Amino acid sequence: MTGKKKFYITTAIDYPNAEPHIGHAYQKIVGDILARWHKLLGEDVWFLTGTDEHGKKIQESAEKSEKNPKEFVDEMVLKFQEAWKVLNIKPNRFIRTTDKDHEKLVQEFIKKCNKNNDIYKGFYEGLYCTPCEAYYTEKDLINGECSFHPGKKITKIKEESYFFKLSKYQKFLLEYYKKNPEFILPAERRNEIIKRVEEGLKDLSISRTSFSWGIPFPLDKKHIVYVWMDALYNYVSGSGKNQKYWPADVHLLGKDNSWFHCVYWPAFLKSAGYKLPKTIFVHGFLTFNGQKISKSLGNVISPKVLAEKYGADAIRYFICRQFPFAEGDDGDFSEKALIDRYNNELADKLGNLISRVSTLIEKNGMAPESVTRDISGEMSTKGKKYKNKLIKKLNLKKIEKHFENYELDKALNEIFAFIDICNAYVQDKKPWETKDKKVLYEIADSIKVIAILLWPFIPETSEKIAKQFGFKIELREIKKPLNEKNKIIKGEILFKKI
Q1: Would you call 292 a catalytic residue per the annotation?
Q2: Out of 113, 129, 262, 320, which one is annotated catalytic?
Q3: Is 151 helix (H, G, I), strand (E, B) or coil?
Q4: What are 423-432's pLDDT values in tens digits?
Q5: What is the CATH number of domain 337-479?
Q6: Residue 292 belongs to what H/E stretch?
Q7: How confident is the model at residue 281 (pLDDT cuts 50, 70, 90)?
């Protein structure tokens, strides 16, 4: 053990039945940003993402491609991994539900539930949505269709099945939600789940015989494990050596997966004797022209294509700046809005500040005296104190609070408000005329703070600035003054206007 505070963050794992789209990337980008922030805080971070590779949907997609399921998913998974690499998303583990260690642990998990007398054999007949990999009742459907997959056929399936005693855990779940309001966020989603659970829970079918692509059910060789009982366990099986990081600090997932994660998952965990995750954060969808971005709807936007066109940092920045993640609402994706923010904020505000200041310092140098300061902005040179007026206007505690509350857009608002202050300071002091080295130093010192705070969002750009100005990307560096002896050079244009 490192002795550091642990932070374990997961995303939902994706079905690789088709290529990844920007809707998948939204959640993974947020996960990576939060993981990077906690690394800045000096915590022992574990970030997990991956792919959910079993189930009827995968089997059908493989058959259409005239491949066996494993061949099919092996090819598709590479496309997900490539997309995340292009977007600078760096999980500690990319888990696949076809991984042997996962399969073994899922079977052990089911045996633990069975030991607690929570599994029995029965017979199931119901309406099945293949894209959801879930049974629904008539009242769950809208005009006979799944609300998350309109236009997709609902299949009536009748089969022998093993059941999990979900109804047994209704009281436990309701009491847990009440005692732990941070378990489901935001509050609107928690209230939705509570209302549905109060209506009553039915026992859950957890095995299948109508198709064959899945983990063998450990209690009966004729059955395979229901894909949601298989997939959800990835959070435990992927939690590091000997499950070091479990329980998770936060699960990130879209609202279409909330029922499975907020009801099935805690009931499974309770049955098997595991601790529950601290928080399940349910976010909204990215939409395109008002529709959910979805493979099934045919309005997919490739994250790889976008990143190659605008750069990974631009995509990461736009997604968090444009959409208020913490509110859990949908956000409509617009390439025009992306270009506007790229030009007006990344190029004109951040890029221009770095370019102007580095050019002036390269020509004129900066503060010749030894400087010390703390984050309050107090500085001293050779025993004589002066104030860094810029640093004092940065509210670091407010930014930290925004991260804590998943308010990434608000954190960026604070950082860019400070960038605006720095740009205004340059205009006011006119160091290109005055050659004032103290002013140039104050701005350079402030740029260091900006780059460190932006690193979770735009890591490639921040690392370029750090190299250019001669500092390390570490949170503790914020409280240290920039070394006045650093040789600062004019670097490449960070964001070329479109």
Answers
A1: yes
A2: 129
A3: coil
A4: 999 999 999 9
A5: 1.10.730.10
A6: strand 291-292
A7: very high
**Dihedral (CA of 305, 311, 312, 317) sign:** negative
Name residue, tokens 């045919």.
298
349 noted as active-site residue: no
Evaluate if residue 293 carries a pLDDT over 60.
Answer: yes
Helix (H) / strand (E) element for 206: namely: none
Q: Is 54 annotated as catalytic?
A: no
**Residue 121 is among the residues annotated as catalytic for this protein:** no
Selected catalytic residue, list 24, 255, 261, 304:
24
Active site residue 262: no
C-beta of residue 408 within 8 angstroms of C-beta of residue 33: yes
Q: Does the structural domain 6-333 have CATH classification 1.10.3720.10?
A: no
Asked if the model's pLDDT at residue 383 lies above 50, the reply is no
Instruction: Tell me the domain boundaries of the chain.
Output: 6-333, 337-479
Would residue 422 show up in a list of annotated catalytic residues for this protein? Answer: no
CA distance linking residue 293 with residue 309, whole number of Å: 19
pLDDT at position 194 over 70: yes
- The answer to whether domain 6-333 and domain 337-479 are alike in fold is no
149 annotated active-site: yes
pTM (two decimals): 0.91
Of 28, 39, 57, 149, the catalytic one is: 149
State pLDDT tens for residues 316-343.
Answer: 999 999 999 999 888 888 889 999 999 9
Q: Which of 295, 349, 401, 464 is catalytic?
A: 295
Do 19 and 300 form a contact (C-beta atoms < 8 A)?
Answer: yes
Predicted confidence (pLDDT) at residue 230 exceeds the cutoff of 60: yes
Q: Tell me whether residue 320 is one of the annotated catalytic residues.
A: no
Q: Which of 28, 54, 283, 292 is catalytic?
A: 292
